[in-house]
Amino acid sequence: MKTNKTKLLTKVLACTMAFGLVFATGCSKGKSESKLHEDFINELGGVSETYVGAVSEASYATADEAATAYVEEEIVGDADVTVIGATSKGALTSSEVTALNLPTEISEGMQEIEKIEVEYAVDEVSAMDTLNTNKTVTVYVIKYANDFKYYSPLPVTGETITKSYYDSVFDYEKYQNCTYSMEMNVSYDVSMSVPGYGSFDMDMEMTMKQFAKYADGKIYLEQTITMTVAGDEMLMEEMGDISDMNEVIYAYLETVDDEVVCYVKTDPNSTEWNPTDLHQIGFYDLDELTPFYDQYLNYTYFTKTNYGFEISGERMEQFIAETFEMADLEAYAGMLDVDLMVKYYVKEGALSGMREDGTVSANVSESGMSVKVKGVVEAIGKVTDYGTTVVEKPFTE
Q1: Is residue 212 a contact partner of residue 179, using CB atoms and an 8 Å limit?
Q2: Adjacent-strand bridge partners of 151
Q3: Distance (Å, whole) CA 303 – CA 160
Q4: DSSP per residue over 84-139, as a string?
Q5: How many CA atoms, within 13 angstroms, populate the side-chain half-sphere of residue 6?
Q6: Nearest-CA neighbor of 206 among 362, 20, 31?
Q7: What is the pTM of this model?
Q8: pLDDT tens sequence across 225-236
Q9: What span, in angstroms and rounded, lies between the C-alpha atoms of 172 and 290?
Q10: Residue 31: what pLDDT?
Q11: Residues whose CB is less than 8 angstroms from the CB of residue 176 and which lie 6 or more positions away in sequence, other chains included
């Protein structure tokens, strides 16, 4: 009976929670989104870009080849693309070149910069695209003495960000010395109706807090997770692994003689730190704990903004559709009503704040059973103290 009764609920919860936990959602708490947005920027001390652009690592024999490579490598992501044509708009004037403010490592040896318009079409259209229309992008190609390279400038507000910009912001080397904090609150209201058994309700709330400091190959980490579940006892018993919990862990890690040593404690009032293996807290390498280590989303989901970048609207729908496809859950993609806007705030060229706004809900019927789920996730993350964070061992041996 457990399998038949809870199979649908388990699938629905898995799908809704996947998006609830992938995206940390900022709660309005009575304030308008514009007010929350401005308050958060002020809390971060402002936003600013330091990205000066990048040139292609590869060299090309002609300007058209370089322009085509820009589209393939910087614009369309993993999609297949057909370049329809490339039209030269001539070389930039000296004043136009000066306006680009190229750093010396890019401009050294440069002979001229040619402006080329490339028309292209994406061959494989995502499930959320409605029109397969041709697109045009302006590409700047730099001519050096023996070759050509494309130049990838700071993305324009309102346009898709480029791969080079994405890699610059998420370069985990920038986060080797910083302080990271995040608080996330998740709540789910569940109603289920089963023929022959009746109706059941369940409410779940979870709060997760993380605080971490990184410096000189050392990491100090705090994490607290609390969850309360209330509702029909039979349904909760059938679900089995859903129950109240209150977990806290403190960890200190450092590299000693090329070996990672890890100490933990689970009582905030205790002064005793116990040595343990790194894999006991879910990791196998110290770098894995660095913010944004090995993190990669398709950069084509993101739209440039005046504060950083965001995922919203059709881009969010595309992300949802493709995520379900990769997880082999296409059959359940249509059951979710997802209203999310994810904002990333950049200060001095590094990701310094994350906040989002939205809900995830589902209303599904299958084999006479019905499930209604509504989830709200509220969270804010910040990365601060770049280059000034100090990590000290919290105990003496």
Answers
A1: yes
A2: 55, 140
A3: 5
A4: EEEEEEEEPPHHHHHHH---HHHHTT--EEEEEEEEEEESS--TT------EEEEE
A5: 17
A6: 20
A7: 0.83
A8: 998 888 777 666
A9: 7
A10: 65
A11: 214, 215, 290
Q: What is the pLDDT of residue 71?
A: 95
Rounded to the nearest integer, the mean pLDDT of the chain is: 83
Instruction: List the one residue out of 211, 210, 223, 218 whose CA is nearest residue 177.
Output: 218
In the predicted model, residues of the chain with pLDDT beneath 70 are 1-31, 124-132, 234-243, 294-296, 324, 326-334
3-state SS, residue 180: strand
Strands 178-194 and 198-215: antiparallel
Closest CA to 42 of 302, 312, 350, 345: 345
**CB under 8 Å to 122, separation ≥6 — which residues?**
76, 79, 80, 81, 132, 135
Q: Which amino acid is at 170?
A: F
Contact 148, 356 (CB under 8 A): no
- Per DSSP, the three-state class of 206 is strand
Q: Give me the residue label for tokens 């082999």.
A: 328
Q: Are 80 and 74 in contact (CB under 8 A)?
A: no
| The residue to which tokens 């947005």 are assigned | 37
Residue tagged 């994405």 (tokens)? 166
* DSSP 3-state of 361: strand
Residue 377 pairs in a beta bridge with 186
Q: For 260, phi and psi rounded to 5 degrees?
A: -85, 125
Please give the pLDDT value at position 28.
46
pLDDT of residue 174: 86
Q: What single-letter amino acid sits at 148?
A: F
- Measured distance CA(183)–CA(200) in Å, rounded: 30
Residue 322 parent element (H or E)? helix 313-326
DSSP secondary structure letter of residue 260? E
Assigned token pair, 162 = 């480029």
Question: What torsion do the CA atoms of 58, 60, 66, 69 make, to the nearest 10 degrees?
Answer: -50
Residue type, 332: Y
Q: How many CB atoms lie within 10 A of CB 264?
A: 16
Q: What is the pLDDT of residue 296?
A: 67
User: Which residues make Cβ contacts (< 8 Å) with residue 104, sequence separation at least 6?
Assistant: none
